[in-house]
Amino acid sequence: MAESNWSIRYEQQNERSRWYSSQLWYVPFAYLALVGIGLEKVQVFNEPLRGYAFFSLAVFSFAMFVHLCHLKFYERRAVHGLQLLEKEAGNPVVSSGASPWYLSFIPYIKSLFALITYIFLVLGTGSATLPSSAQLQCTIRVLSLVVATFLFALVLWKDRQRNLELTAEIRKAAAF
Question: How many whole angstroms separate alpha carbon 117 and alpha carbon 56?
Fold first, then answer.
């Protein structure tokens, strides 16, 4: 009975880790397709609606950046769960989800999402969107970029904290 329970838990955890891994590939390509469709549709809008649409695409890009950070964290956590189950059963630990950062495409995709967010913010706060003085337009544009930078820094800091905690948990489990 215990062996059956372990195999069910292992199968579920394995399925979870594979789902997160697949999402790490699906999400960026779906995002790029949606942004491509969105850009095509935005071109027919008149100002100021076009600026609002670009701003909405910037918010969507930021949300996808946050989602990608979550997916990567939960994938690592699922692989760690597999490793714990393997160790619990006395089997050799063969599950691995780690790769050097330069081989993983996630940092590059996150950078691309951040860049696209900034581009959409600049386009969304363009001169035709905000009917006011040039100085006010520049101030709003700079302020939006500063707020976006702060939000990116906050998300990256939180993501790093979670990953450090998970890494400490993995090292603690490996020591036993």
Answer: 10
